[in-house]
């Protein structure tokens, strides 16, 4: 069981005789392992189990005793967690942008052939295929950006770039194949009869290859990330160096 410590400043504690009752009330709260009131420093020191501890209950109980409380400083591990979550913002944003780009490619192709309204209808019909291709590509892009932002990344940047570039090409091809049966009627009118035949004939292989390449890229980058964690351990820092 992991044990954490927290200091909670309080105001209004003017009677030293009320220290013991306050300590007893604190120790009865769920998740509190031990509690002590420092009358001189006007603060409460709490040892707690983070699995069951609720800060809101402690604050409510202290206030019910007639004291004012200030929000405590979170432990260092929580600060590190917030920093890490903030650092994930750019990779997540890049992944969402990559997925949105592929969906935009689908909508653009169908809109050029049959109009915007029809494109939205067909997007809903093909939502599972489009979603699988776009999600896989988005995850791959997000992992790539995350790996590139790690300090002292032991991954070959050329290999990671090549893997992502391959995923970009196959995902784009898969998305074209996904909407091929919607645009093949219009392609002959544009003088692209051969392209229409090719897209219609190999639509399923295009999509399978695209989804498969995304899966390979995700597995490769996942293994690279695992190697980084094993090598760097607690020193791992997703923030941009320098």
Automatic annotation (TrEMBL):
InterPro entries: HMA_dom (IPR006121), HMA_dom_sf (IPR036163)
Signal peptide residues on this chain, from the entry's feature table: none
UniProt xrefs under Gene3D superfamilies: 3.30.70.100
Keyword terms, alphabetized: Membrane, Transmembrane, Transmembrane helix
Keyword presence, Transmembrane helix: yes
Entry-linked PROSITE patterns: HMA_2 (PS50846)
Residue ranges crossing the lipid bilayer per the database entry: 88-108, 128-147, 159-184, 204-226
GO MF entries: metal ion binding
Location of the HMA domain: 4-70
Keyword Transmembrane helix on entry: yes
Name used for this protein in its record: HMA domain-containing protein
Organism: Candidatus Thermoflexus japonica
Lineage: Bacteria, Bacillati, Chloroflexota, Thermoflexia, Thermoflexales
């Amino acid at each position: 069981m992991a044990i954490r410590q927290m200091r909670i400043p309080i105001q209004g504690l003017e009677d030293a005789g009320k220290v013991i009752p306050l300590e007893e009330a604190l120790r009865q709260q769920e998740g509190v392992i031990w509690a002590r009131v420092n009358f001189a420093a006007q603060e409460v020191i709490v040892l707690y189990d983070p699995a069951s501890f609720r800060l809101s209950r402690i604050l409510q109980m202290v206030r019910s005793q007639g004291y004012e409380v200030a929000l405590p400083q979170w432990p260092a591990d929580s600060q590190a967690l917030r920093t890490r979550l903030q650092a994930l913002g750019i990779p997540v944003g890049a992944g969402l942008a990559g997925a949105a780009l592929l969906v935009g490619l689908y909508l653009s192709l169908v809109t050029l052939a049959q109009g915007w309204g029809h494109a939205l209808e067909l997007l809903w019909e093909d939502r599972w295929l489009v979603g699988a291709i776009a999600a896989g590509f988005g995850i791959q892009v997000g992992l790539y950006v995350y790996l590139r932002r790690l300090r002292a990344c032991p991954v070959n940047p050329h290999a990671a770039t090549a893997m992502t570039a391959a995923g970009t090409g196959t995902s784009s091809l898969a998305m074209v194949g996904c909407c091929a049966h919607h645009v093949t009627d219009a392609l002959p009118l544009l003088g692209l009869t051969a392209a229409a035949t090719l897209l219609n004939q190999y639509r399923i292989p295009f999509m399978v290859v695209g989804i498969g390449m995304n899966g390979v890229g995700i597995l490769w980058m996942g293994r690279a990330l695992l190697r980084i964690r094993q090598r760097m351990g607690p020193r791992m820092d997703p923030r941009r160096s320098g």
